[in-house]
């Protein structure tokens, strides 16, 4: 039987079962409805690792996949904590000063943000609006736009940085 880059025959690679990966993800706190996405991420990373010629062989794909699944669970928690932190900061801002107290200031700010959004490149503006105005998750945006999640994250990062710079420049003048 042919031996793969992992050092194991093809049938033993099947030992990395979806059920085992789901169990690791579930124990890591990933919700039921996101388990299949996590399994796919692990499978993709396994394929990437096997396709790189300069990487050392994976001696135990089952253990390797369990470690990757646990890291994906940690990443899920980090993303959730980041989102919760943003929501808490926004809630704190609105609780201190409700929007109805200074409608003219809010209108000026809304117009300024709209102008800054217009100056962003189309793909950056698109993911920014989908993420923050329609409250879609990164994976949903990626699925909708048919691009990788990493592309969505990168576009969001660059869009927020550009928006932040423009708004800071306007405040200073």
Question: Which terms summarize this structure?
Answer:
disordered N terminus; elongated; 173 residues
3D architecture notes:
- There is one protein chain.
- The protein is mainly α and 173 residues long.
- The protein has helices at 10-13, 18-27, 35-51, 61-96, 103-119, 122-133, 138-145, 149-172.
- α2 (18-27) crosses α3, α6 crosses α8 (149-172) and α7 (138-145) crosses α8.
- The longest helix has 36 residues, at 61-96.
Total count of strands: 0
Helix/strand-derived category reads mainly alpha
Overall 3D form? elongated
Please count the helical segments: 8
Let me know the average pLDDT. Answer: 80
Span from first to last CA? 71 Å
Rg calc:
22 Å
Which SSEs are present, and which pair or pack?
Elements lengths: L9 H4 L4 H10 L7 H17 L9 H36 L6 H17 L2 H12 L4 H8 L3 H24 L1
Helix pairs in contact: 2-3, 2-4, 3-4, 6-8, 7-8
Entry summary:
The protein has 173 residues and is mainly α. Helices cover 74% and strands 0% of the residues.
């Amino acid at each position: 039987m042919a031996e793969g880059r992992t050092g194991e025959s093809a049938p033993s690679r099947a030992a990395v079962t979806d059920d085992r990966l789901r169990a690791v993800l579930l124990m890591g706190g990933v919700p039921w409805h996101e388990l299949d996405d996590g399994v796919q991420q692990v499978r993709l990373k396994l394929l990437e690792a096997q396709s790189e010629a300069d990487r050392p062989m994976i001696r135990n794909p089952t253990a390797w996949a369990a470690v990757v699944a646990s890291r994906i669970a940690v990443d899920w928690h980090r993303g959730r904590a980041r989102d919760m932190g943003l929501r808490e900061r926004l809630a704190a801002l609105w609780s201190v000063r409700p929007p109805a107290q200074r409608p003219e200031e809010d209108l000026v700010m809304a117009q300024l943000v709209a102008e800054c959004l217009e100056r962003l490149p189309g793909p950056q503006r698109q993911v920014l609006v989908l993420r923050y105005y329609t409250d879609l998750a990164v994976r949903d945006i990626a699925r909708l736009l048919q691009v990788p999640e990493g592309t969505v994250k990168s576009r969001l990062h660059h869009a927020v940085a550009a928006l932040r710079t423009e708004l800071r420049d306007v405040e200073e003048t």
